[in-house]
Automatic annotation (TrEMBL):
Gene3D superfamilies assigned: Nucleoside phosphorylase domain
Record keywords, A-Z: Glycosyltransferase, Transferase
Sample GO molecular function, one term: purine-nucleoside phosphorylase activity
InterPro entries registered for this protein in UniProt: Nucleoside_phosphorylase_d, Nucleoside_phosphorylase_sf, Pur_Nuc_Pase_Ino/Guo-sp, Purine_phosphorylase
Pfam family, one: PNP_UDP_1
Pathway listed: Purine metabolism; purine nucleoside salvage
Protein's name in the database: Purine nucleoside phosphorylase
Nucleoside phosphorylase domain location: 22-269
Keyword Transferase tagged: yes
Gene Ontology BP terms: nucleoside metabolic process
Stated family: Belongs to the PNP/MTAP phosphorylase family.
SUPFAM superfamilies to which the protein is assigned, alphabetical: Purine and uridine phosphorylases
Protein's job: The purine nucleoside phosphorylases catalyze the phosphorolytic breakdown of the N-glycosidic bond in the beta-(deoxy)ribonucleoside molecules, with the formation of the corresponding free purine bases and pentose-1-phosphate.
Length: 271
């Protein structure tokens, strides 16, 4: 069934002009402006793509954008899906499977995250080197998963090492602070308690969010190399925890976004 649905989704996008993109990009909360830099863009709204889920978060746009970025064909996912919206893992990762079938060779992911590591400050960036999945499930736990790749997908190095090394060098050259750390993904949508922040620090997390890990698991299953960057939007200090201000988090993400865009564009130049 999923194979048939994917074929229909891909056929629709190809009919719109989505032709063999090399790079797939997933844009996180408050991080949609990279899409504005796509040359000769072709847009496909999620509600027009057969079998595509619909973004329900008010600050996620809900469209795929195809075009050229730094001379490479790219497809950008402006608006992603989350467990906290009521979607299942198949819904959340369906766009990754679609982009893979369209032809992407690399996947770039961004997200907004809270700092567990208090050396990180609001507006900093973190290169994700590893992750912890606390979302209570797997996007590979379904019948027939073997038709897409190895059921027992290796996750010893889920984020591509050469791209990570290159991005670190670019950040140094551009004088952009780029921490390297572990991202933990939780269900949400509620923010964490003080005790939960303490627990996350104990288990080795540097930043926490509500996305990314399902997409990364599926991309690894499909053998698509991944680079992922978190924009640190708030500092989660359990000893001085303030009530969450979502509008402030969005403004912080928006202010830091040009740094992330710069890094992604410079990395694309090297590919």
């Amino acid at each position: 069934m999923i194979r048939k649905q994917l074929n229909e989704s891909v056929a629709y996008l190809q009919s719109k002009g989505f032709d063999n993109p090399e790079i797939g990009i997933v844009l996180g909360t408050g991080l949609g402006k990279l899409a504005d830099q796509i040359e000769d863009p072709i847009e496909a709204h999620y509600n027009h793509i057969p079998f595509f889920p619909l973004a329900t978060v008010e600050f996620h746009s809900g469209k795929l954008i195809y075009g050229t970025l730094e001379g490479k064909k790219a497809v950008v996912m402006q608006g992603r899906f989350h467990l906290y919206e009521g979607y299942d893992f198949m819904d959340i990762t369906y766009p990754i499977r679609v982009m893979h079938q369209l032809g992407i060779k690399k996947l770039f992911i961004s997200n907004a995250a809270g700092a567990i590591n208090l050396d990180y400050k609001e507006g900093d960036l973190m290169l994700i080197e590893d992750h912890i999945n606390l979302q209570g499930g797997s996007p590979l736990a379904f019948k027939g998963v073997g038709q897409f790749g190895d059921r027992f997908t290796d996750m010893s190095e889920p984020y591509d090492v050469p791209m990570r090394q290159t991005l670190s060098k670019i950040a140094e050259q551009e004088e952009i602070t780029l921490h390297r750390g572990v991202y933990v993904s939780v269900v949400g949508p509620q923010l964490e308690t003080k005790a939960e922040y303490r627990m996350l620090k104990i288990i080795g997390a540097d930043a926490v969010g509500m996305s990314t890990v399902p997409e990364v698991i599926v991309a690894n299953h499909l053998n698509v190399p991944i680079i992922a960057v978190s924009v640190i939007t708030d500092e989660c200090n359990p000893d001085n925890l303030k009530p969450a201000d979502i509008q402030r988090i969005l403004k912080t993400a928006e202010a830091a976004e040009p740094k992330m865009v710069k890094l992604f564009r410079e990395l694309i130049k090297t590919l």
